[in-house]
């Protein structure tokens, strides 16, 4: 497919569908942002220990592993659209349980249910958007879930700031319970969305798929070409010579291929699992969750000030993810990914230096506190330029059609597992080696991530989902210096 000579217009119908699907992700972002402040009041109100705080915070990520793992087969069975509805409904129940919790066990039950909903949402929104979007604007549209996660984080910070003056027994309940409100609207809005055309083709509903492609393409000719390409790919993937019946494909046999992959699929799995692993091993979720703790250690004591600083961080993060989303289809995935990982490594090293300096001082100088604030903002900003949006885009676009949902669910499950482990051990490890030591360690992780991205992540910009598979058929990608490191082609 040739590169366009002009800026590709965004199909308005595809944009509207992508926006609706991606709004589900605002629920995860809101939880991350609001929980960073709510735990301060929960700890006082329910009299829980620091270990219980870690379990409370990290449990959502660990439990989202269940939803992520199940979402692939679920979406192959009932469709992408209804899986998004299921995600919103599950999170709604979890938010209500958390808001009405009377003790730690009740609160944990809500976190478990909300976590399952988050797991479903994280996998299905990018997959649905990638399958619906035209190739030349897929980067922007598939990055929207991360945009909404970031906006949700900022919204959570604002709610923390606004409700922090209320009594401690009430404010945290409102903070976590308010997530139920958008969940209802999101689930209702998704009902007006079309189904993924690629899922429809796999189910043998060619006419329905053509109707969706006509709306998401610029002209009838483009819709026909996309339908022809999708249909051919589906027939090849499923090993059949005629259009499948409605009951032909329900995701059966996919895990067998993922467990015993061919060399090209092995390269895809390494790329998808690797980028998801490093997304969370970077410690970004933990840094966001525990930002108030980090800033308290840096010398910012007043809770109103703590929440005010987190709003600044949220604004920086939101601005950068919007910039990344709009430039993904122009500059490509690799350059922004490498820029983000290098920037995170430098920012985390700077944060480590600032934290180690402040650890040895009783009087905290303003310039050192300012350095830590700038370093944290830089870290989350570079994450939002690179790993944040690109992980979801890349994971949703590199798997073959028949394997996409369950392959993505496997990669996102690794993402959630690592996120949970990091979130649940961040404070414990930091207490042993100090925040400064923790940030130096995370900086080293990002150096390793940069090396991995350079050698194992090929460019996919401007390619249709069906063309991307050919990239992984070769050891070396044309026009780049990527070496996959496999002896068999």
UniProtKB/TrEMBL annotation:
Q: Which UniProt keywords apply?
A: Membrane, Sugar transport, Symport, Transmembrane, Transmembrane helix, Transport
List where the protein spans the membrane: 12-30, 50-70, 82-102, 108-128, 140-162, 174-193, 268-291, 306-328, 335-354, 366-395, 407-429, 435-457
Record bears the keyword Secreted: no
Listed InterPro entries: MFS_dom, MFS_sugar_transport-like, MFS_trans_sf, STP/PLT_plant, Sugar/inositol_transpt, Sugar_transporter_CS
- Gene Ontology terms for molecular function: carbohydrate transmembrane transporter activity; symporter activity
Compartments, record wording: Membrane
Q: Give the membrane topology, semicolon-separated if more than one.
A: Multi-pass membrane protein
Q: What does the entry list under GO cellular component? A: membrane
Keyword Glycosyltransferase assigned to the entry: answer is no
Looking at the record, the residues that make up the Major facilitator superfamily (MFS) profile domain are 17-461
Family that this chain belongs to: Belongs to the major facilitator superfamily. Phosphate:H(+) symporter (TC 2.A.1.9) family. Belongs to the major facilitator superfamily. Sugar transporter (TC 2.A.1.1) family.
Q: What is this protein called?
A: Major facilitator superfamily (MFS) profile domain-containing protein
Organism listed in the record: Centaurea solstitialis
């Amino acid at each position: 497919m040739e590169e366009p000579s002009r800026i590709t217009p965004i199909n308005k119908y595809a944009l509207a569908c992508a926006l609706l699907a991606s709004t589900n992700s605002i629920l995860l972002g809101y939880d991350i942002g609001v929980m960073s402040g709510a735990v301060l009041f929960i700890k006082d109100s329910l009299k829980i220990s620091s270990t219980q705080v870690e379990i409370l915070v990290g449990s959502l990520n660990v439990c989202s592993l269940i939803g992520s793992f199940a979402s692939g087969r679920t979406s192959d069975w009932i469709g992408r659209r209804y899986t998004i509805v299921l995600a919103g409904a599950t999170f709604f129940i979890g938010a209500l349980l958390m808001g009405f919790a009377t003790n730690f066990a009740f609160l944990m039950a809500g976190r478990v249910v909300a976590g399952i909903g988050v797991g479903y949402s994280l996998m299905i929104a990018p997959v649905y958007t990638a399958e619906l979007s035209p190739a030349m604007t897929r980067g922007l549209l598939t990055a929207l879930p991360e945009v909404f996660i970031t906006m949700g984080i900022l919204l959570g910070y604002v709610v923390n700031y606004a409700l922090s003056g209320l009594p401690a027994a009430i404010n945290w309940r409102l903070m976590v319970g308010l997530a139920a409100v958008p969940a209802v609207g999101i689930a209702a809005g998704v009902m007006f969305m079309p189904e993924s055309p690629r899922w429809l083709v796999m189910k043998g509903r060619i006419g329905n798929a053509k109707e969706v492609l006509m709306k998401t393409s610029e002209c009838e000719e483009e819709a026909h070409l996309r339908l022809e390409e999708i249909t051919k790919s589906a027939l090849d993937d499923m090993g059949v010579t005629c259009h499948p019946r409605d009951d032909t494909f329900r995701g059966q046999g996919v895990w067998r291929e993922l467990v015993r992959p061919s060399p090209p699929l092995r390269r895809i799995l390494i790329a998808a699992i690797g980028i998801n692993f490093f997304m969370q091993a970077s410690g970004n979720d933990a840094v966001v969750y525990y930002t108030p703790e980090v800033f308290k250690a840096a010398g910012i004591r007043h809770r109103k000030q703590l929440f005010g600083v987190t709003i600044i961080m949220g604004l920086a993060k939101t601005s950068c993810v919007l910039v990344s989303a709009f430039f993904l289809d122009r500059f490509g995935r690799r350059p922004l990914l490498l820029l983000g990982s290098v920037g995170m490594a430098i920012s985390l090293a700077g944060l480590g230096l600032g934290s180690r300096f402040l650890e040895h001082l009783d009087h905290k100088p303003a310039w050192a506190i300012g350095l830590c604030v700038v370093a944290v903002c830089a870290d989350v900003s570079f994450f939002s330029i690179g790993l944040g949006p690109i992980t979801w885009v890349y994971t949703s676009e590199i798997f073959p059609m028949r394997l996409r949902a369950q392959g993505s669910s496997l990669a996102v499950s690794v993402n959630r597992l690592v996120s949970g482990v990091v979130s649940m051990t961040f404070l414990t490890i930091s207490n042993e080696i100090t925040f400064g030591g923790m940030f130096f360690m995370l900086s080293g992780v990002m150096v390793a991530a940069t090396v991995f991205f350079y050698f194992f992540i090929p460019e996919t910009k401007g390619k249709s989902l069906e063309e991307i598979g050919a990239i992984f058929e070769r050891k070396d990608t044309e026009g780049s210096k990527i070496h996959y490191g496999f002896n068999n082609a």
